[in-house]
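In the design runs reported in the main text, the only information available to the sequence generator was the tokenized backbone. The following block is the verbatim input for one such run; it is reproduced so that readers can re-run the procedure and compare outputs position by position.
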């Protein structure tokens, strides 16, 4: 397999259960340590006389640039002192040979070069391409394209970007020309998607050998643009463990059979909607019906005598008190707009509900109460299944850490929550993570900032619960990942239809239904 676009992805969903990183499966993601192992093995596999990995990377970059930006004549290449800069210099030499006006700013020095970079520099100079130090003027008449080869996987989270490189990054981000990032946008931490202190905002990123999780979660999507992978024609003799998998679609279900009835798709109850927050529970309930649940009950926690007992737009929803429900037979979403009232109902739900999704205020209540935490932990050993859907602040409260700590280690946080509470954790936000105690974590690829509006999380909670009820036999992690993907896909289709603002939560349900 050679170069391919990962994001936006092609409409296919390869699902391998094989927990190994094989370079022919582009949706498996590798952390930096694994990428370095792969690189070492790949380097060892290169036979004398074959092109080096750096030459392959640089040529792949050149081909992508020629394909994506064929009309760019004046190109500014920013090459750092490491191998990331070496890749950029190889591409620069090819662009120069193709007749482009190429200005290379190079931060390296002959004393510090790797052997591959030494060869790349020598070849570029032999081809007549000058490598300029930082303080020289950029002479291009009008820059039409920038190549960001400043920092790749050599950037580690323990060190902010140096002032010199930070200034270049600021300059790149101010110029109107598009940016192609080499391996990673400089400043992005490959393992986490956190930003060291500043980051190049790329339009296109070409990553090498293995896709890195940081491109797809936390800040990654916002800074990477369109993401391409080139495995540099490497075939590995040994497998490597991936750190996560990209989730790029929805698993097909057969059409509803003729001989089904509403009881075939299970009963859902939404428990939430305290005073002045009933809308959250209604959104979740409407989404649950749309996702396929047979019957949906709404149990409002509001004390107000004026509370609604009928959703006139969706009269199929049935309003019941929690005492009227047989919670041992339901799939329940608890927490949407639930306020502090939820703490009173949680003990019984945690003890008796076989399939329980906890969101929002339910998670806040559990974070604040050690006894509820014990009840949650006790569920898995008793064969009761739990899904939690925290946003980063809720996740931070559950683990008693800061939001920043969550966002700089989203994969680890989601896994920790899943293991600690014995549940599936859907850690929301850009690049939602679906983690279980033991399986490889999934990173959802769909969705965008149009979802950053109140109530879309309630819709997700209801949608996931509806799917769980309708497809109880589907592997739960895959079922939840499909639901998360559909939720994001609805927002992607909304944007593709030309909308630029937020997607109101109630309309999100309509877009989910017309997939
Ligand atoms: N070795 C090879 O043949 C291959 C290398 N590849 C490329 O090599 C890159 C990794 O190369 P390196 O290990 O040299 O790492 P990088 O080139 O990503 O970074 C190392 C350089 O960055 C500097 N640096 C690190 N942290 C900094 C900070 N906080 N502020 C300012 N400067 C900082 C270091 O001093 C060093 O000069 C990959 O990202 C990829 O682009 C790939 O193309 C695969 C093949
Ligand atoms: N920038 C974004 N990119 C992708 N998804 C997003 C983005 N912003 C929000 N979302 C998604 O929207 C939903 C918001 O949920 P949440 O924060 O719980 O909202 P609320 O509590 O108001 O319903 C989550 O599914 C989240 O992943
Ligand atoms: K880079």
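Verbatim output:
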């Amino acid at each position: 397999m050679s170069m391919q676009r990962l994001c936006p992805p092609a409409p296919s969903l390869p699902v391998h259960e094989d927990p190994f990183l094989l370079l022919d499966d582009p949706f498996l993601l590798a952390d930096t340590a694994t990428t370095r192992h792969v690189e070492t093995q790949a380097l060892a596999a290169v036979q004398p006389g074959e092109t080096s990995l750096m030459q392959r990377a640089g040529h792949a970059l050149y081909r992508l640039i020629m394909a994506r930006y064929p009309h760019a004549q004046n190109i500014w290449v920013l090459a750092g002192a490491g191998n990331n800069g070496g890749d950029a210099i190889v591409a620069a030499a090819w662009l120069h040979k193709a007749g482009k006006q190429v200005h290379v700013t190079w931060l390296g020095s002959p004393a510090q070069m790797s052997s591959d970079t030494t060869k790349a520099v020598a070849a570029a100079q032999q081809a007549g391409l000058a490598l300029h130090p930082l303080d020289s003027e950029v002479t291009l008449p009008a820059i039409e394209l920038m190549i960001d080869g400043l920092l790749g996987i050599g950037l580690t989270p323990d060190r902010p970007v140096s002032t010199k490189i930070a200034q270049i990054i600021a300059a790149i981000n101010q110029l109107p020309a598009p940016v192609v990032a080499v391996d990673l946008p400089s400043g992005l931490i490959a393992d986490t998607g956190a930003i060291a202190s500043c980051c190049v905002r790329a339009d296109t990123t070409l990553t090498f050998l293995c896709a890195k999780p940081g491109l797809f979660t936390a800040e990654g999507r916002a800074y990477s643009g369109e993401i391409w992978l080139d495995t540099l024609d490497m075939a590995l003799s040994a497998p490597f463990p991936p750190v996560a998998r990209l989730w790029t679609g929805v698993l097909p279900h057969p059409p509803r059979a003729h001989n089904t009835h509403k009881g075939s798709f299970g009963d859902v109850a939404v428990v939430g909607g305290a005073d002045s927050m009933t809308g959250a529970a209604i959104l979740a309930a409407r989404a649950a019906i749309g996702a396929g649940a047979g019957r949906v009950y709404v149990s409002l926690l509001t004390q107000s005598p004026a509370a609604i007992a009928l959703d006139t737009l969706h009269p199929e929803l049935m309003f019941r008190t929690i005492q009227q429900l047989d919670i041992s037979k339901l799939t329940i979403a608890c927490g949407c707009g639930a306020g502090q009232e939820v703490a009173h109902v949680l003990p019984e739900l945690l003890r008796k509900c076989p399939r329980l999704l906890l969101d929002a205020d339910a998670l806040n209540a559990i974070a604040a109460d050690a006894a509820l935490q014990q009840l949650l932990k006790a569920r898995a050993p008793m064969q009761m299944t739990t899904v939690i859907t925290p946003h980063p602040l809720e996740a931070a409260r559950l683990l008693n850490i800061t939001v920043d700590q969550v966002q700089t280690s989203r994969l680890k946080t989601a896994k920790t929550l899943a293991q600690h509470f014995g549940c599936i954790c859907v850690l929301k936000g850009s690049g939602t993570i679906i983690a279980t105690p033991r399986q490889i974590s999934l990173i959802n690829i769909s969705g965008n900032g149009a979802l950053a509006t109140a109530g879309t999380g309630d819709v997700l909670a209801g949608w996931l619960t509806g799917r769980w009820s309708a497809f109880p036999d589907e592997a739960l992690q895959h079922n939840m990942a499909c639901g998360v993907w559909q939720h994001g896909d609805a927002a992607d289709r909304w944007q593709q239809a030309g909308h630029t603002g937020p997607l109101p939560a109630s309309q999100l349900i309509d877009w989910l239904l017309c997939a």
